[in-house]
């Protein structure tokens, strides 16, 4: 899948028009269109940085084709992890919590 195709898919997924993406990223609508239609095959890194920021993805996601079996991280999981970090929970405490949950599940009578 090309960079343009990935940009178009991500734009559509976020419900953005070409105009909205162009305005938010501060780039020309015609340039985004030419990238999406694969007329412009080598967009600049500055363009990719601006577009990826609006689409809430890193530039690598635009550049590299990901394996279709790769599991996407659920945004809710990311928010939960962020909330845990902001509340002061350490990685060690989080790991202990996960281990306790596994232990509890393995020792439940209805397993």
TrEMBL record:
Name of the protein in question: DNA-binding anti-repressor SinI
Superkingdom: Bacteria
Keywords: DNA-binding
Database matches in PROSITE patterns: HTH_CROC1, SIN
Any single GO CC term annotated in Swiss-Prot or TrEMBL for this entry: cytosol
Signal peptide start-end: none
HTH cro/C1-type domain segment(s): 7-62
Record-annotated Sin domain positions: 64-102
CDD domains, alphabetized: HTH_XRE (cd00093)
MF (Gene Ontology): DNA binding; DNA-binding transcription factor activity; protein dimerization activity
Annotated organism of origin: Bacillus aerolatus
